[in-house]
Amino acid sequence: MTWGIRALASLGIVFAIFTGDVRAEDGPGARAGASAPVHREQEAREVMVRHSADPPQIEVVVDTRAAPVAVEVPPEPQDPGTHFIVELNLGSSFTGSVGFAGSLLVGAGGRLRGFPPIFYLVGEAGFQLGGSDGQIDGARYVDGREYGDVSLGLRTYLPILRDLRIFLDILPGATFVTSTLARDGLTELHTSGWYAHFAFGGGVQGRIFRELSAGLRVKILATDDGLDDAREALGIYTPMPVVLSGTVTWHL
């Protein structure tokens, strides 16, 4: 019986060598012996063989544990962002009366590393109608103006929420102004020419898609024309043109 037990124990040890670790536990008639752990890519096994002569028994214990597997996760691709904008503005001009206003703005720029605002060098070409009419000392007058302006300046975006931003525009440039001033009993006055201007604008935009946003914009145009002195002499108030427009902006 003893030799049979020893033969089965030897077979168990051979099986353990081919499948994992061998570890003998202390006990009556136990053999002490161990081998270095065998590491595999997906799992590691540990086999323990225990035998005793009284009473005759053999116990083979297989311990299977999942070994840690290092999985390399590729980094998420970063959004390169956009560097160009093309914007269409359509709305109304308020200069005593309400007139049409529109412009096309293009720009190039981006965000500085670690700095939230986004800066664009922008150029804008716009057109607006303005003027006013009324009566002074019982005499009716009509004041009509047309503005065609070109500007080059800076736009700054400041993010508020993920898809909502405010922006500010500083746009110096030049305006071609055509003005007409007519009053009952007086000769109609007419002038046209280029004048320097300074425009200041601002508004809010919401991102609809990655490439498209929409919003509202207010723009104030400070400029001159050749009939300012005549209006002042007649007592006609001349407010600065203010444009309120909706914006559609493509981000490229």
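That was protein one. Protein two is written in the same sequence-then-structure order:
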Amino acid sequence: MTAFEIVALLGAFAGISMVLGGIWLVAKGALTMAATPKADAITIEWKKQFRINTQVPGIAFFLVGLLFITLSLGFLKPPELVPIEFEGEIKGIDEAPNIVVRPANWELPASTGGHINGRVYPDLSVVVLVINAPGYEPFTKSIRIGADGRRIARLGTLELRRKVKESELEKRIATLPFPVPPVESFGVAQ
């Protein structure tokens, strides 16, 4: 748990404490729900845009507690997912390649009895790019991605290495001077 999450949880706990404490003070009679004179009214103002004015101190106590709870829950929401954009070019290929992006390896400890009990904290600061194109060797590259702002992975110009090189024998294969007859059957069906 991060320090920010701890502070937000403490704010929520303070708000719950104020609401429950306000209920307890009203029950004991220390805080009144009766209207007080206008001179004793409680006013809360924020940037001259938001203003609460009440002559009932118990309501102000509850409102401040609810404000603590609401703000804390607002800060504890999960962060918005930011997409990762990839920019680059693959040089010298004819067909569309198959491109896979996966996270770097996350290890999960296992015990000797075959039981799996562990925790993984997803980290997308490093991803692995795998490119497969027909006739080329698979291309693999680890890419470090910044965590702040717009997440862009600039790949530059990539050049894949040919898997099979054209041999002299393949160059000497000639086309047939006549059309190949169609294949009608491959044997007897059983």
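Residues 3-28 form the longest helix (26 residues). Keep this in mind for the problem set.
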